[in-house]
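tokens incoming
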């Protein structure tokens, strides 16, 4: 592979993917989403193009003009913006985007929408690869990542909350739950993990436990749960003392910095 397309969302992951591709001598052609993608990505790729969120036709034209036959999606999107004011003007959907959103998907959950986008890319000869291509080391390994292991109470809360989180993920509601003393304080939905953590932390005050998992049949092309230093900052602010993630199915970004911050705050992070 000499060249790969990168459909870049928000966060650090697109930058880390581009770095990994470079280290494997693969050129990266990036397509950023206005208002989502970090402009700094321009320093990590051979070329950078911009689209609005719902411009599927433009995305495909750019990739084809660049001679791209293989691409990845990396980084998240702020799904709650779907319901912002003047969203039609903000997203500027083209005809292909409108057709997909209103005619080709049976529901609007993340997996269905992204799988439909992958199918549209395939129709034009562009194969969507696993987003951990070139960066498999970012997937969490089993075990406790921090110096402090979960306490007995935290372990009991993890055991209580884990099957609930898996059921929520299976039903494509969200990826995270916040619990304390075997009571569910918050469930993630469209607002995202950080807001769910803050809401649960406000109710539990301190010493609460967060659990973040992947859906049962995780598609590594998209929608991989992700944690990193910013997650730890939110955990601290929310009063979360322990975070449980799913080994082999969760991206850990800037792992060294994340662990340093967690250890400093006495937050336990474990991959199960």
């Amino acid at each position: 592979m000499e060249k790969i397309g990168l459909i870049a969302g928000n966060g650090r992951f697109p930058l880390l993917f581009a770095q990994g591709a470079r280290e494997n001598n693969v050129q990266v052609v990036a397509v950023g989403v206005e208002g989502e993608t970090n402009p700094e990505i321009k320093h990590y790729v051979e070329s950078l193009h911009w689209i609005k969120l719902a411009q599927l036709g433009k995305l495909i034209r750019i990739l084809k003009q660049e001679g791209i036959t293989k691409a990845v999606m990396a980084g998240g999107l702020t799904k709650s913006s779907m319901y912002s004011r003047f969203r039609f003007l903000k997203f500027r959907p083209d005809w292909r985007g409108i057709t997909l959103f209103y005619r080709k998907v049976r529901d609007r959950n993340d997996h269905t929408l992204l799988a439909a986008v992958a199918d549209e890319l395939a129709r034009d000869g562009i194969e969507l690869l696993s987003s951990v291509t070139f960066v498999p080391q970012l997937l969490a390994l089993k075990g406790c990542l921090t110096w402090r292991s979960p306490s007995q109470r935290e372990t009991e809360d993890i055991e209580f909350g884990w099957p609930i989180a898996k059921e929520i993920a299976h039903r494509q509601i969200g990826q995270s739950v916040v619990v304390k003393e075997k009571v569910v304080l918050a469930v993630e939905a469209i607002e995202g993990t950080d807001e769910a953590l803050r809401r649960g932390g406000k109710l539990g005050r301190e010493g609460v436990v967060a659990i973040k998992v992947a859906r049962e049949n995780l598609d590594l092309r998209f929608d991989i749960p992700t944690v990193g230093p910013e997650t730890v900052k939110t955990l601290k602010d929310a009063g979360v003392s322990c975070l449980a993630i799913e080994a082999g199915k969760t991206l850990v970004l800037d792992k060294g910095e994340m662990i340093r911050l967690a250890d400093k705050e006495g937050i336990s992070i474990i991959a199960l």
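note: Residues 3-128 form a domain with the Rossmann fold fold (CATH 3.40.50.20).
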